[in-house]
Design a protein that fits this description.
The protein has about 350 residues and is of the alpha/beta class. Helices cover about 45% and strands about 15% of the residues. Bound molecules: pyridoxal-5'-phosphate.
Length: about 350
């Protein structure tokens, strides 16, 4: 019996077709810029997002951190949301490697209010820290895959431009945002100084992310990537999966969103409370407090039927749909949870 893994969209395994592309990919030494498949992926990514150049990196974390290193000088501040991936899950690397200080703004929806960003930028005095960068996240992981409203992005980018501060997008799941809004991704990322997106999440590749920006930014980021230990050799083997993912796995993200919505709806019907409500992309949180069920116990029980879920604590579970979960897997999950609730009441 194959497992239904709803913990994350990072758990997807490459399909036979993707593996074929990987096995037959032309390769070369990428530190000499001689890997044709990596070059192709980088050009493709830049083109799809509407930027001059791209850089293949082994992970989203490296993409974000190389971007921060490239945009900032040691001693500057980076303004970002208080629950953002860069702040919470990247081990304070901006401080450790780039010598910059996070300046967080706590929100309840992942969207930075422009007024608060304005207030977080110090007056231009030699004795106050300078703001080197603003970073946004779209979709917002810790907010349950929320889409950053495009008009809020526009307003923030206009403000940032007016004060000359660059803006980076942690777009690990920016294709989910584009598909949810039914808008070309190019439009959503227009005006950012750099964007990182992950191939290894909903797009289904086993490894890799791409950082895009201007030619001069990517020239600097190339130095940063090497310094961070991300200079790779015949990595066209893995970049081929990224090319395949961009060609085949973008539009189908809509299925993941529909599956998440259906699962969230069913859980809501059973008394779970769901955030965000309505579900916006492929991620949501289910809270068990009102139905008096321990999320860890539920997880242990579901595992017996081959369903893996990710409780964050006794009351909160994060559900994530992806290309290894289909409609019948959603049915099975709903049934198994119904059975558990019936037997435990
Ligand atoms: C997954 C993710 C990243 C990067 O994660 P890696 O595991 O380093 O590839 C960055 N930002 C967000 C919002 C993410 O969800």
């Amino acid at each position: 019996m194959s497992e239904i893994d709803l913990r994350s969209d990072t758990v997807t395994k490459p399909t036979d077709e993707m593996r074929d592309e990987m096995a037959t990919a032309p390769v070369g030494d990428d530190v000499y810029a001689e890997d044709p498949t990596i070059n192709r992926l980088q050009e493709m990514a830049a083109e799809v997002l509407g930027f001059e150049a791209g850089l293949f990196v082994p992970s989203g974390t490296m993409g974000n951190q190389v971007a921060i290193w490239s945009h900032t000088e040691a001693g500057e501040e980076v303004i970002l949301e208080g629950d953002s991936h860069i702040y919470i899950y990247e081990l304070a690397t901006m401080s450790a490697f780039s010598g910059v200080m996070p300046r967080t703004i706590k929100t309840d929806n992942g969207v930075l209010p422009v007024e608060e960003v304005k207030n977080a930028i110090h007056p231009d005095k030699y004795y106050l820290p300078r703001t080197g960068l603003i970073a946004l996240e779209n979709t917002h992981n810790n907010q349950g895959g929320r889409v950053y409203p495009p008009e809020e992005i526009r307003e923030l980018l206009e403000f940032a431009d007016s004060v000359g501060v660059p803006v980076h997008l942690d777009g690990a799941r920016v294709f989910n945002a584009a598909v949810a809004l039914d808008q070309p991704v190019e439009e959503l990322v227009d005006g950012f100084d750099s964007v990182m997106f992950c191939l290894s999440k909903g797009l289904g590749a086993p490894v890799g992310s791409v950082l895009v920006g201007s030619e001069s930014f990517i020239e600097k980021a190339l130095v940063g990537r090497k310094r961070f230990g991300g200079g790779m050799r015949q990595a066209g083997i893995i970049a081929a999966a990224g090319v395949y993912a961009l060609e085949n796995n973008v539009d189908r993200l809509a299925e993941d969103h529909a599956n998440a919505r259906r699962l969230a709806g069913a859980l809501q019907g059973m008394g779970f409370s769901i955030t965000p409500e309505p579900t916006e992309t492929n991620i949501f949180f289910a809270n068990t407090e009102e139905i008096g069920v321990n999320a860890n116990d539920l997880a242990v029980e579901l595992e017996r039927s081959g369903i893996v879920i990710g409780p964050r604590d006794g009351e909160n579970i994060r559900f994530v749909t992806h290309l290894d979960v289909d409609g019948s897997d959603i049915d099975k999950t709903v049934e198994a949870i119904e059975d558990y609730l019936a037997s435990s009441s």
